[in-house]
Amino acid sequence: NSFKNVKENNQANGSCNNNTVSALNEVSEDVQDVRKSLPVYIVRNRILEEIRKNNTMILIGETGSGKTTQIPQILHEQRLEGNGAIAVTQPRRVAAITLALRVATEMNTEIGSYVGYSVRFEDATSPKTKVIYLTDGMLLREAIIDPLLKKYSIIILDEAHERTVNTDVLFGIVKLAQKERNCKGNKLKVIIMSATMDVDTFRNYYDNCSVVYLEGRTYPVTIYHSKTKQDDYQYSVVCAIFQLHVTTPANHHFLVFLTGQEEIETVMANIKQIAKESPGPPIRVCPLYAGLPPAKQLLVWKSVPEGTRKIVLATNIAEASVTIPHIKCVIDTGLVKERSWCNVTGAERLRIVPCSQAACWQRAGRAGRTAPGSAYRLYTNGDFKARPQHNTPEIIRCPLAATLLMLIATGMEPSTFPLIDAPSPDSVQASLILLKELGAIESENNPKLTVLGKKMTAFPIDPKYSKVILSAPEHGCLDEALSLVAVMSSENVFHTPLHKREEAVKAKQKFVSTLGDHITLLNVFKMFCKAPLKKQWCKENYLNHKNLSYACDIRHQLLAICQKLNMEVSSCGTAFDQLLKCLLSGLFTNCAWTRGGMTTGAGKYATASGAAAALHPASSLHGLRPPPPAVLYTELLHTRRAYLLTVSAIEPHWLHQVAPEYARRCRANR
Ligand code: ADP
Ligand code: MG
């Protein structure tokens, strides 16, 4: 069913259109020339020989050398997959989708036929699919059902240098599966692919397997550093863009590295505004971030009219996962949004932090793909040198509850599971305690799934949120809980263009609940579902139609899982206390309290770890007098200050009611 949706969407967007077969053929001539010019193509026979001979291989090559798009095709052309399929994992959903679309075009086939993709809430594969691009998270979910991953005869773990938790865990799962399957004569071939990385670590881990290096094909990039420290990088970015815009030829396209959707939207609005009065060629601005709908992502690859400058505003997704052609100039803020968590409370936080030196080089390298280029770093040389050389593997600094639950569900023993870099025992222990408090496992010392825990793994979402859904019948609010979790799993639903900020804020008023942002979101979602002309309605109300439609899809799928589990769909009507308690039963680690004696209403709170944080100005609780004594927040964002995002007011004693074990531990720590 969801596959059908995907197909329809693609046709509507014209990205994979049956009506343009002739145009497609024309394109494919070109495409074949591009393929043959890629570094991978030159060494394809060597790669084929290696992979025929060995079960495991590491392939290293610069971004853009054709690893991700070509290797699966080269293997498939020789039918090396036999009766199985080829899986290619990607850390990001956007990358999985765009790459699959690209390869489908190159193979002159439609998506979901021989080439497909599988990402959370969207499956564009069919029984005949031979090459499947999927997120590392999706392959992990498949491992719960079949730890030997028998559907695949070749598994390609791509972007290994990123060291996401999911990829790191997959290294172990695939290694174990390979060992067992090879004994039974049902061989599994594994290819690890990456941009430059620390090869020895991987080689040791995979028993000294063979390594193939691709010849680099990059041009020199001149690096410029900022002379002084920049206080406001968003402002610096816009200044840099327009300084370069009036001095460089229009066919020199720009790639700008920023940290997230909101920031990209703000900078985009600023550029559009200033461009109206700026000298220089016309500008086309293209955003690129993980939550961007696929059709919009493809605009990045669309050519612009001669004499127009393309400016791509991207997150670190453009660092290595996707290749954007004709970039001659990179503008790098040197920053990345990083997820980490507090070991004591289990609460997650998002922080904007300097990226590693390796990442800075990757970013600069994007300017030298087709000709010599330049990279403008908005940080000083001293700042650059002070950075760590490589990214810390995510598994060292990230929440592990979801990953551990997955491992336990596949029947693996967390303590003996083969990992390249093991997280600290403290952090494993903290995650096990959280799983215990969520009711997913018997105890932290006996990590066996409970009945509830088993049900939790049926949902493709974080265990905190599956707990919310599973406790909803108890609170009589499954209908609302499903809607809320669905909206929260989609991307930002509010659309606030910079030049129409006032109108957007005014439009939001009709949804706002004084109980907080969660009920506000629920109001938006409910009214969206009822609106007859949804696109028009969203436009009038400054809402993001794509993200709300996506939330509807998600809700559909979550509901289907609930029905399979025989859950009764109850509604709490306007008794929102019940819904907020239900939400708290999963997100109990995300409470904050007004600080002792603080009645000035400055909106200052302390989280469970004692950190100070303020209500985000966009919160519907912002400015409320007196401020609610206790709140539940969805995310903690550290920019120059710490902000609580998506917040609701709760009664302090609810915590004891819905999460007594945690409440006790939390009190002991505070
Ligand atoms: P790697 O995995 O080695 O970084 P890819 O296989 O992703 O390289 O990309 C190889 C080449 O294919 C790129 O240099 C680019 O020319 C082309 N390419 C990749 N994706 C797209 C796309 N979506 N649209 C147009 N060209 C693309
Ligand atoms: Mg790649």
TrEMBL record:
**Which CDD domains does this one have?**
DEXHc_DHX33, SF2_C_RHA
Which InterPro entries does the entry link to? DEAD-box_helicase_OB_fold (IPR011709), DEAD/DEAH_box_helicase_dom (IPR011545), DNA/RNA_helicase_DEAH_CS (IPR002464), HA2_WH (IPR048333), Helicase-assoc_dom (IPR007502), Helicase_ATP-bd (IPR014001), Helicase_C-like (IPR001650), P-loop_NTPase (IPR027417)
- GO molecular function terms here? ATP binding; double-stranded RNA binding; hydrolase activity; RNA helicase activity
Gene Ontology cellular component terms for the protein in this record: nucleolus
Where in the sequence is the signal peptide annotated?
none
Known catalysed reaction(s)? ATP + H2O = ADP + phosphate + H(+)
GO biological process terms on file: positive regulation of transcription by RNA polymerase I
SMART domains in alphabetical order? DEXDc, HA2, HELICc
* Alphabetically ordered keywords of this record: ATP-binding, Helicase, Hydrolase, Nucleotide-binding
Domain named Helicase ATP-binding is located at 48-215
Which residue intervals define the domain Helicase C-terminal in the entry? 240-412
EC number, UniProt record: 3.6.4.13
- The transmembrane residues are none
By its UniProt entry, which PANTHER family does this protein fall under? ATP-DEPENDENT RNA HELICASE (PTHR18934), ATP-DEPENDENT RNA HELICASE DHX33 (PTHR18934:SF118)
Q: What is this protein called?
A: RNA helicase
